Amino acid sequence: MRLFIALDFPEDVRLALRDLLAQLRPTCRSARWVRPEAMHITLKFIGETTPKELDSIRGALVRVHSDRPVEMRFRGLGFFPNERRPRVIWCGVEASKNLAQLAASVESALEPLGVAPELRAFVPHLTLARIQSPEGINELVLAANELKSNDCGSARETEFHLFESILKPSGAEYKRLASYPFVKGAA
């Protein structure tokens, strides 16, 4: 099974993202657009695991804590690696400092289990689309630049989730396996 750890966010943010995608999608039909209901803030991609590894991972994640909720605001658009040669278009996530600390705590909890640490710096974002070909990229970049100040709302999260990613021809499906409150006293 293919696993990852992520934060979720409220439905009003998903609705705003749906509206944003409705404006962007016609500009680049060659992109593979992410469904808003499948969006999440990835803290750690684990990859393929066995059932035995899953049990160890579940146990390790119980010990991850923060002293306060993670505050996030979803705004701005950008491209990975850049807008000259975009492979991904993303919505920015402005977050409280403890989001990066939470991601680092997840890394630290999993490393003793043999889960390789991420070598790149943690950059919170929401992937909106993966760009498949250069067709329509110029129009997409222009539209994204016009919408750069777009604000899709905010979230205050107190738990993260362990997901299974099931790859299908129609795109990945995500199944929530477990939830972990990371703020003491949070339910």
Description:
With 187 residues, the chain is of the alpha+beta class. It has one domain: Cyclic Phosphodiesterase, Chain: A, CATH 3.90.1140. 26% of the residues lie in helices and 36% in strands. The protein has helices at 11-24, 51-61, 98-110, 137-146, and strands spanning 2-7, 31-33, 41-48, 70-80, 88-95, 125-131, 151-157, 159-166, 173-181. The strands form 2 sheets. The chain has a 5-stranded antiparallel β-sheet with strand order 2-6-5-4-7. Strands 3-1-8-9 form a 4-stranded antiparallel β-sheet, with helices on one face. Strand 8 (159-166) and strand 9 form a beta hairpin. It is globular. The two termini are 28 Å apart. The model has no long low-confidence stretch (mean pLDDT 94).
Main features:
9 strands; four-stranded antiparallel β-sheet; 187 residues; alpha+beta; Cyclic Phosphodiesterase, Chain: A; five-stranded antiparallel β-sheet
CATH topology: Cyclic Phosphodiesterase, Chain: A
Mean pLDDT: 94
Count of strand segments: 9
**Which geometry do the CA atoms define?**
globular
β-sheet strand percentage: 35-45%
Largest sheet: 5 strands, antiparallel
One letter per element, helices H and strands E, the order comes to EHEEHEEHEHEEE
When the domains are counted, the total is: 1
Please state how the strands of the largest beta sheet are arranged side by side: 2-6-5-4-7
How far is the N terminus from the C terminus?
Answer: 28 Å
Considering DSSP H and I runs of 4 or more, what fraction of the residues is helical?
A: 25-40%
CATH homologous superfamily name?
Answer: Cyclic phosphodiesterase
Indicate the low-confidence ranges by residue numbers. Answer: none
Q: Determine Rg (CA atoms, Å).
A: 17 Å
Q: Counting H and I runs of at least 4 residues, what is the number of helices?
A: 4
The secondary structure category is alpha+beta
CATH level-two architecture: Alpha-Beta Complex
> What CATH first level would be assigned?
Alpha Beta
